[in-house]
């Protein structure tokens, strides 16, 4: 109902004015009547209303309605424009927030990549430093080992030279001949001359002995005797074990090359 009144207020005012006009005319006609009752007459009363007034009222009503529609349309357009602006502002805020989020994410990604790169670089440098130290230690160990080996070789060479010099001195003193003679005599004492042994027997005997004179092996080299003679010499050497020690310890040799020449 209020909406109807707002939309047709001009028409309602015009209708009220018409009713008021009719009421005024009716009152004036009543006042003009005589006090004595007049004879009853049948009469038709009519009220003449100016058509232009009605047209103007209708025009004002239509204009008012059109203005109301215009104002309503204007308010609707304004509301749509306001809502559109609000949506645009919200969209701008959303885009700005997304852009800030992307920028923060990109900054965080770059920070993590830089942290990872620095960690990898630090690890690479640490590995290189460890490798360098290991190589230096290996070189120092190698140099120390080579120095020790060289010192050991030099010491062994000096020892061998000293032993060889001492041995030569012992040989020059005649102890070597004495040692060989002792061994030959011991072998001859344990030799059983076979019937096939002929005068002028001469055989080269290779003997391997352990420290203390224990015979380890016997091999007959160049020999002018037969198989029985060679076998008898090998047996004699094994029976002679342990061989006599040298008069000078420097004359001891593990491998002896003896010339077996028994007296006829």
List its traits.
264 residues; mainly alpha; rod-shaped; 3 strands
Explain what the structure shows.
This protein is mainly α and 264 residues long. The protein has helices at 2-7, 9-31, 51-172, 175-189, 227-239; strands spanning 203-209, 215-223, 255-260. It has a three-stranded antiparallel beta sheet, covered by helices on one side. Helix 2 packs antiparallel against helix 3 and helix 4 crosses helix 5 (227-239). It has five helices and three strands.
Q: How would you write the strand order of the largest sheet?
A: 2-1-3
- Report the β-strand fraction as a percent range: 5-15%
Instruction: Please write the string of helix (H) and strand (E) elements.
Output: HHHHEEHE
Uncertain parts? none
Gap between N and C termini, in Å? 170 Å
Kindly provide the radius of gyration, computed on alpha-carbon positions and rounded to a whole number of angstroms. Answer: 74 Å
Shape category: rod-shaped
Class by SSE composition: mainly alpha
Number of strands: 3
Mean pLDDT comes to 82
Helix-residue proportion: 55-70%
User: Main β-sheet, in a few words?
Assistant: 3 strands, antiparallel
| Helix run count | 5
């Amino acid at each position: 109902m209020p909406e109807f009144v707002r939309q047709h207020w001009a028409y309602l005012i015009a209708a009220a004015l018409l009713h008021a006009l009719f009421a005024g005319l009716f009152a004036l006609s009543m006042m003009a009547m005589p006090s004595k009752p007049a004879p009853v007459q049948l009469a038709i009363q009519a009220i003449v209303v100016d058509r232009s007034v009605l047209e103007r009222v209708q025009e004002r009503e239509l204009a008012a309605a059109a203005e109301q529609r215009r104002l309503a349309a204007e308010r609707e357009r304004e509301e749509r424009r306001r809502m559109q602006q609000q949506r645009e502002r919200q969209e701008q805020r959303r885009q700005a927030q997304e852009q800030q989020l992307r920028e923060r994410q990109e900054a965080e990604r770059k920070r993590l990549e830089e942290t990872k790169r620095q960690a990898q670089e630090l690890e690479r440098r640490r590995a290189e430093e460890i490798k360098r130290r290991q190589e230096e230690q290996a070189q120092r160990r190698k140099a120390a080992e080579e120095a020790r080996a060289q010192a050991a070789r030099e010491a062994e060479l000096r020892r061998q030279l000293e032993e060889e010099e001492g041995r030569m001195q012992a040989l020059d003193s005649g102890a070597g001949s004495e040692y060989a003679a002792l061994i030959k005599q011991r072998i001859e004492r344990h030799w059983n001359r076979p019937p096939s042994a002929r005068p002028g027997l001469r055989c080269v005997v290779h003997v391997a002995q352990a420290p203390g004179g224990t015979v380890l092996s016997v091999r007959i080299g160049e020999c002018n005797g037969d198989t029985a003679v060679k076998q008898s010499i090998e047996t004699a050497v094994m029976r002679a074990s342990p061989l006599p020690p040298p008069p000078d310890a420097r004359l001891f040799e593990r491998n002896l090359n003896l010339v077996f020449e028994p007296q006829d």
